[in-house]
Structure formats: C-alpha cells, structure tokens
C-alpha cells in the first residue's frame, strides 16, 4: 500500500509500546508507519488490515484506529527494511534493551546505505525502559564494524528518550488487543537534535536534562511497580493490581519510592515540591489506572527479566546506589531487591538463569555478580539479610 506525501516512520518492535505509544503518537503526527518485528504473528496481524485498534482505558475502552501502517519481518524482509532506513524521516525502537543487538546490524547497514545515497539526516531514537538506550544502540552499531561513529554522525541524530505510558495487553470489548492509558510522556534529549527548536514529534517533551528526567521516571515509576511485583510475587499474587491493593505491601513500596526520590533530589537538584508533584501525578493518581474494570496486568510482565532489573543502573539498585552516594537511607529499596532475587518464575528465562546461578554459586556471589555489590559491604549485608529472612 502506498501513502503519498506522508512523512514516514520505521518502528522496530510492534509490541505494546511500539503500537500502543510510539505508533499512536507518530500516527497522530501524520506519519505513515512501517513496523519491523521478529514475530511473524505480529507482522501478519498488522498487515491484514494495514491498521490496528487501541482500546482507551480512560474512555470505557473506546477504540482508536491507527491506520496507514504496515509491517515487515526482521527475519524475512531484511533487504526491504534496510532500503526503508534510507527513506524514512524517523526511526525508533521498542524491542526491550537486550534485543537492541538484533536491531543494530540491520540499522547500521541501512544507515550506511543512506549515507552512500547522499540522503539527509534521520532521527534515530531507542524508546526503551533503560538508561540512555539510544547511546547503547549507537555503540552496538559501531561494534558491528558496519559503520563508524563519524559516518553515523553524518547521517543521523541520536537523542536518548524517556518513555512513560501504561500499555496493557488483554481482551477488551471481546477482542484481544492493546489498551492504553491517557497519561503519557515521551521525553526527548533536545541537545542531540540538529535544530534545537525543531519538534519532530508534537506531543513529546523536549528536555535539556534527559538523564535526570529519565532516571526520575525509571527510579520512581518503574521502581514502584517492580518492587510491588517482586514482593507481590513472594506473597503469591499473580496480578500487579492485587499487589497494588495490598496495603502492607504498598506501605513498604511507598517508603522505597521516597528513598529513591530523596536521592534523586540531591543528585539532580529537583526541588522537594517538584518531586512531590511528580510522585502525585505519575504514581499516586495511577493507582486508579490499575483499579479500572478490565485491567489485568500480570506480575510476570512487570517483573520480567530480573537480571536486567537488578543491575546496578536499573530501577531498584540504581536509586539505592544514588541514596548511598549521599548517605541517605536505602533499606526499603534493598528489601525490594532481596525479593527480586527470590523471583523464580519458571517461564521467565532470566529468572531461571538467576535461580540456577544461585543454586550453583550461592546467593552471595549472585548478589555481587548481578548488582555489583561488594561482598561484605553494608548494602550487600542488608540485601543478604532480607533475602535470608524471606
Ligand atoms: N509496556 C509498557 O507499559 C512499557 C514498556 N516500555 C519499554 O518499551 C520497550 C518495549 O516494551 P513492550 O512494548 O512492553 O514489549 P513487548 O514485549 O510488548 O514488545 C516487544 C516487541 O519487540 C519485538 N522484538 C523483539 N526483538 C526484536 C528485534 N530484534 N527487532 C524487532 N522487533 C523485535 C517483539 O517481537 C515484540 O513484538 C521495552 O524496553 C520496555 O521496557 C516502556 C514504558 C512502558
Ligand atoms: O518493560 P520493562 O522494563 O520490563 O518493565 C515492565 C513494565 O512495567 C511498567 O513499569 C509498568 O507498566 C512498564 O513501564 C514496563 O513495561
């Protein structure tokens, strides 16, 4: 299908965020979108009607049609994807951080070809829950040796982003699909844009302090839900909703969030008021998002990949390290981490890997290895003691 005179976007990853947030936003901005995904099922589903529906959680699951879309398989249609990289106006990813290695070679080949064709610069952004994921993607492209940094600089701009929207999978109005909340924020690193005043995506927020904004989001919102999920899992809950309704769990989780906030205030000079407003808007009010009929968010989704989530810059240990840097308390964050080490979901590849590692090498080595805590250090001792008491 050809859509004349429309701006073009290529989105790697047609999952919940790809379709439910980035696809939605770019569609609202008048882009014709091509998704590139490794899943045949996902590609076929989009290509069936060249459109998909989103269900609006805050509007009684009213359906929003996202049209002018198509999809390609990263496995079967690589040449077409490479060609598309030479043509589009914007390229994004929403594939999960670990899968950026799969995107890097194809994207690098496409950008190299675009440069050889003498095309204009393109904006490339990784939209993942990870710290400075676009920088990671750029480094992965350089590692392929297909392109150099110098060549990448000539053909593209690579802003980091912060991605915040609740996007759920499930059955809505009797149909399987993706449900999205109204509340959302796509933060884009302004300094990386060639024209600092340009706003290539309307409805996004252009920020000068992306690292601070991104860490505030991941170390508060994602921290809140991750710790809720790991403690909830140990308590036998299957759904995030249920763990969010458990007041005993939430008393602890809120203390962890406040530990995180205190460290962020110090590190990034957020005022206390600014931080409280953020917590009210992006956490407290969002308990209601989870309380709506029809929302069933599995703990397995929010707790997925515990090794990533326990790494030193991610949502639990990241803020714990910041708190310790300023001699602030971090006991509740470390209590959350201890519960994450207990996550033994047999359907989660990383959880299985982590539990096998614990069995083989002991919890002490596992804590050191995954979270970077030195054996015998104060933070290490707290995690270990909590773990042994669970
Ligand atoms: N779902 C949410 O509420 C939020 C998710 N995020 C972040 O957005 C990113 C995507 O998450 P979701 O959409 O929830 O995950 P998802 O699992 O729903 O979708 C990921 C998609 O990427 C595809 N994929 C995997 N490897 C690929 C590759 N090499 N090339 C192309 N496609 C590939 C998968 O087949 C899948 O369709 C993650 O980094 C996540 O942390 C950020 C904020 C909120
Ligand atoms: O996508 P991740 O990083 O695995 O985190 C799990 C999910 O839980 C959330 O924190 C809340 O839905 C999302 O931002 C995120 O997709």
From TrEMBL:
<keyword id="KW-0520">NAD</keyword>
<dbReference type="Pfam" id="PF01232">
    <property type="entry name" value="Mannitol_dh"/>
</dbReference>
<feature type="domain" description="Mannitol dehydrogenase C-terminal">
    <location>
        <begin position="210"/>
        <end position="371"/>
    </location>
</feature>
<dbReference type="GO" id="GO:0019592">
    <property type="term" value="P:mannitol catabolic process"/>
</dbReference>
<dbReference type="GO" id="GO:0008926">
    <property type="term" value="F:mannitol-1-phosphate 5-dehydrogenase activity"/>
</dbReference>
<dbReference type="InterPro" id="IPR036291">
    <property type="entry name" value="NAD(P)-bd_dom_sf"/>
</dbReference>
<feature type="domain" description="Mannitol dehydrogenase N-terminal">
    <location>
        <begin position="8"/>
        <end position="169"/>
    </location>
</feature>
<dbReference type="GO" id="GO:0005829">
    <property type="term" value="C:cytosol"/>
</dbReference>
<dbReference type="InterPro" id="IPR013118">
    <property type="entry name" value="Mannitol_DH_C"/>
</dbReference>
<protein>
    <recommendedName>
        <fullName>Mannitol-1-phosphate 5-dehydrogenase</fullName>
    </recommendedName>
</protein>
<dbReference type="InterPro" id="IPR013328">
    <property type="entry name" value="6PGD_dom2"/>
</dbReference>
<dbReference type="InterPro" id="IPR008927">
    <property type="entry name" value="6-PGluconate_DH-like_C_sf"/>
</dbReference>
<dbReference type="Pfam" id="PF08125">
    <property type="entry name" value="Mannitol_dh_C"/>
</dbReference>
<dbReference type="InterPro" id="IPR013131">
    <property type="entry name" value="Mannitol_DH_N"/>
</dbReference>
<keyword id="KW-0560">Oxidoreductase</keyword>
């Amino acid at each position: 299908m050809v859509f004349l005179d429309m701006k073009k976007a290529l989105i790697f990853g047609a999952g919940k965020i790809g379709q439910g947030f980035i696809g939605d936003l770019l569609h609202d901005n008048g882009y014709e979108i091509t998704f590139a995904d490794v899943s045949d099922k996902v590609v076929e589903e989009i290509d069936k009607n060249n459109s998909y529906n989103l269900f609006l959680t805050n509007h009684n699951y009213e359906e929003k049609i996202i049209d002018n879309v198509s999809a390609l398989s990263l496995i079967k249609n690589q040449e077409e994807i490479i060609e598309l990289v030479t043509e589009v106006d914007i390229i994004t990813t929403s594939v999960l951080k670990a899968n950026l290695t799969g995107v890097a070679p194809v994207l690098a080949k496409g950008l190299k070809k675009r440069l050889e064709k003498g095309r204009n610069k393109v904006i490339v952004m990784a939209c993942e829950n990870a710290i400075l994921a676009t920088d990671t993607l750029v480094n992965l492209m350089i590692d392929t040796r297909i392109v150099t940094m110098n060549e990448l600089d000539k053909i593209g701009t690579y802003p980091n982003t912060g991605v915040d929207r609740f996007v759920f999978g499930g059955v809505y109005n009797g149909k399987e699909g993706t449900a999205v909340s109204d509340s959302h924020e796509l933060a884009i690193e302004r300094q990386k844009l060639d024209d600092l005043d340009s706003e290539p995506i309307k409805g996004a927020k252009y920020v000068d302090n992306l690292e601070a904004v991104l860490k505030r989001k991941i170390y508060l919102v994602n921290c809140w839900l991750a710790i809720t999920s790991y403690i909830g899992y140990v308590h036998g809950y299957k759904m995030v909703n249920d763990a969010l309704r458990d007041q005993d769990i939430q008393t602890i989780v809120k203390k962890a969030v406040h530990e995180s906030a205190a460290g962020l205030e110090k590190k990034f000079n957020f005022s206390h008021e600014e931080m409280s407003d953020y917590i009210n808007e992006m956490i407290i009010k969002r308990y209601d998002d989870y309380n709506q009929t029809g929302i069933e968010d599995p703990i397995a989704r929010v707790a997925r990949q515990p090794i990533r989530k326990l790494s030193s810059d991610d949502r639990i240990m990241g803020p714990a390290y910041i708190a310790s840097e300023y001699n602030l308390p971090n006991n509740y964050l470390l209590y959350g981490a201890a519960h994450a080490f207990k996550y033994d979901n047999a359907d989660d590849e990383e959880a299985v890997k982590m539990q096998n590692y614990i069995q083989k090498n002991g919890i002490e080595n596992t804590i050191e290895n995954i979270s970077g805590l030195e054996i015998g250090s104060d933070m290490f001792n707290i995690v270990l003691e909590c773990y042994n008491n669970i």
